[in-house]
Amino acid sequence: MVSYYYFQKMNNGLPKPGTWENYFLEFLSGDVPWGSWFDHVIGWWKAVDKHRILYVFYEDMIEDPKREVIKVMKFLGKDLCDDVVERIVDHTTFKAMRENPMANYSALPKAVFDQTISPFMRKGIVGDWKNHFSVAQNMIFDEEYKKRLEGSDLTFRTEL
């Protein structure tokens, strides 16, 4: 939710999200430009029954990037030598991607992405939501999350 908020703030192709408090409620109701996050993730989680899909979670990539690169490699049916895997790991760190114009969208004009408001690649840390959610918002989100993902084995980690 926090990432979407900052993305919407800097993306001039989307309506401005307003205050965090307002955005929080709109996000939970699905009243954001891309619709309900809950419907989106549950839809793709269930799509594995019909399509060959690999789920990769940001927290897992931060926790053990090499493990996740190997997971992608195996999913794609590739067998890469350790040197290539290490180079992929190095090139896909948040720091490397944040400095790479092909990944950070810094070449886009300010009229498209105003990165003076928020960089496209903002912080790259797990758990920054704690700096935005109030205690009450956390309780509201947890309840909605529990309700909307009920019956699913999909879980997200929010901390490492």
TrEMBL record:
UniProt keyword annotation of Chloroplast present: no
Family stated for the protein in its record: Belongs to the sulfotransferase 1 family.
Transferase among keywords: yes
Pfam families: Sulfotransfer_1
InterPro entries: P-loop_NTPase, Sulfotransferase_dom
Record EC number: 2.8.2.-
Protein name, per record: Sulfotransferase
An MF annotation (GO) of this entry: sulfotransferase activity
Tree of life domain: Eukaryota
Top-level class of the enzyme under EC nomenclature: transferase
Domain Sulfotransferase residue range list: 1-152
Keywords: Transferase
